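pasting for ref
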Amino acid sequence: MAPEVRSTRLENGLRVVTESVRDVPSVSLGVWLETGSRHEGQSTNGVCHFLEHLFFKGTEKRTPRQIAEEIEGVGGTIDAFTDKEQTCFLTRTLAEHLELSVDVLADLLVNSTFLSEDIELEREVIIHEIQDAEAIPEDYIYDFYLHSWWPGHPLGLPVAGTVASVGTISRDEILAQARKAVRSDHIVVSAAGAVDHEQLVDWCREKFAGLVPAVGESETDRPDYNPGVFVCERELDQAHLLLGFPGISVTDPRYAAAEVLIAALGGGMSSRLFQSVREERGKAYSVYAFLSPYRDIGYTGIYAATGGADIKEVLDLVFQELTAIKLQGLDPGELVRTREQIAGACLLSLESMESRMGRIARNQLYFGREIAVDEIVAEVRAVSNEQVMEIALDILSTDRAGLALVGDAGVGTVSLPLP
């Protein structure tokens, strides 16, 4: 019998979605808030990530140590993450401890104390986290690129914030963000594994009973593009480059075609960029392409790390592949292999309960319904070469492109126009 996905909306608007999987002993549970760095301003940049940390600093009935010990003491794990559009708190335990997981996560979101001394301690931790990330060029380049390409827009802000913004966020601003974020109709509770849907619904109805819906809806707008070359000079042995183009949204009907395009271009060791730039010419150890889709917009990126003297050659090779794929698309065998690469990865992800939990949650957050894996796989396998060429011509346009460079020798010599 195939796993069953069920969803229920509680009286206060909170959504519960489950995928019951037979013959596994565990359950992955996630509580998803529809809030992230996209919903911040310049002065409060990083407040959502700050708040994620602070939820673990103690509640009215649990200390930080007890929060960790209660889950880890039954062999489970507990974690959280913040991104541009969501914040998620998640556990993985044996099925018999699912009620404990619900109780702990609900306690964090409903009863956290946000003591002033805890805020100051965690502020220092996050500042160190930001400084560590900024010191790693292959991580920093993404924030540097978006800050330059989408200037002044929340989507161009780093998820963790900056040292300056995190250093000045007040307790009142943190409390205001908590009140705004923990609203019943902006929460999805998802679970995958050995889970009983009705039982989880009953627990959520009890433990999240005090939450109320949001008053009014916060609006978000789309950023404007700022094409150009953005240079951050550092003393490094390598130059790191990120070439970015407009992308597509999560809900774009061309999403499957875009996935095939990006996988063929730079999605693995058999991809065009890996073979051309690394295997045939040895100009980079790391080179790949990716999609970053959001609710109503996205961007497409190509990353490579190379010697400063080789930047122009690497860019020439990249644009050769972009031109070829826009004009001719994919070879018949390449198209089949790429579609099967994506379909296989999608099916293999079903082995992970955490992956299943995240998939059914995002379906609710972005589409408001379940999208079966079989439906996704069928759509990918139906992508034609004409669809690949069409999406390539649309999103891989140099008039809206941006190029970020982080490094030393040679990075300042690259200029527009791009090839």
